[in-house]
C-alpha cells in the first residue's frame, strides 16, 4: 500500500489529479483532536496513532508533504517501511524555521530517523542511510506525472 500524508493545515484533497491515479494509494487526513490533545501531541505518538488506525504495515510506502513528510519519517522510524518519500519537507533539523521549532519540538526528529536507519542497517548487515533513501526516492522508472493541473 502507499500512504500519503498532507501538509500541516491541509487535507488529503491537496493530492489531486494524477496523484489519484496511483494504484493502492490511501490519502490520509489528520485525526480530529481536542484542544487538550493537540497541546500535548508530539510527532512520535501521532505516527503511532496513524500506524494503528490505518494499519500501516512494514514494507508499505509512506509519503508526506511538509509536516506530513516529517510524520512519514517518524513512521519509518517506527516501522521498516518499503519506501519513504518526502515532498517539500525538511530533511534536517537546521531546515526547520525558528518559529516552527518554537511551536513544536521537531529538532530531534531528523536525528532520531538517522540513528534508527543506521541501527536497522547494522542489524540487517547492509548500509542504508537517509541520504541513500532520498537518492533512491528521486530515481523514477516511469515518467513523472504532470501535477500542474
In round numbers, the mean pLDDT is 75
Helix count, per DSSP?
Answer: 6
Number of domains: 1
Proportion in helices: 40-55%
* Structural class based on helices, strands and sheet pairing: alpha/beta
Task: Sum up the overall morphology in one term.
Answer: globular
CATH class identity: Alpha Beta
- End-to-end Cα distance, whole Å, is 25 Å
| Uncertain segments | 127-141
Q: Estimate the strand proportion.
A: 5-15%
Please specify the SSE layout and strand pairing:
Layout: E1 2-5, E2 25-27, H1 35-40, H2 43-54, E3 61-65, H3 67-78, E4 83-87, H4 98-103, H5 109-124, H6 130-138
Parallel strand pairs: 1-2, 1-3, 3-4
Helix pairs in contact: 2-3, 3-5
Q: Would you write up a description of this structure?
A:
The chain has 149 residues and is an alpha/beta fold. The chain has one domain (2-138): Rossmann fold (3-Layer(aba) Sandwich), CATH 3.40.50.1820. It has 6 helices and 4 strands; from the N terminus they run ββααβαβααα. The chain has a 4-stranded parallel beta sheet with strand order 2-1-3-4.
What labels would you give this structure?
149 residues, alpha/beta, Rossmann fold, 4-stranded parallel β-sheet, 4 strands, 41% helix, 11% strand
In brief:
With 149 residues, the protein is an alpha/beta fold. It has a single domain, classed as Alpha/Beta hydrolase fold, catalytic domain (Rossmann fold, 3-Layer(aba) Sandwich), CATH 3.40.50.
Amino acid at each position: 500500500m502507499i500512504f500519503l500524508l498532507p501538509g500541516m493545515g491541509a487535507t488529503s484533497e491537496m493530492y489531486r489529479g494524477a496523484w489519484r491515479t496511483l494504484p493502492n494509494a490511501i490519502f490520509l487526513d489528520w485525526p480530529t483532536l481536542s484542544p487538550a490533545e493537540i497541546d500535548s501531541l508530539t510527532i512520535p505518538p501521532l505516527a503511532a496513532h496513524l500506524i494503528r488506525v490505518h494499519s500501516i504495515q512494514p514494507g508499505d510506502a509512506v509519503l508526506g508533504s511538509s509536516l506530513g513528510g516529517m510524520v512519514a519519517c517518524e513512521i519509518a522510524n517506527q516501522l521498516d517501511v518499503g519506501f519513504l518519500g518526502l515532498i517539500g519537507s525538511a530533511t534536517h533539523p537546521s531546515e526547520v524555521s525558528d518559529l516552527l521549532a518554537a511551536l513544536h519540538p521537531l529538532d530531534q526528529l531528523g536525528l532520531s530517523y538517522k540513528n534508527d536507519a543506521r541501527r536497522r542497517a547494522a542489524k540487517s548487515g547492509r548500509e542504508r542511510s537517509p541520504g541513500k533513501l532520498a537518492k533512491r526516492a528521486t530515481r523514477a522508472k516511469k515518467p513523472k506525472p504532470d501535477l500542474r493541473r
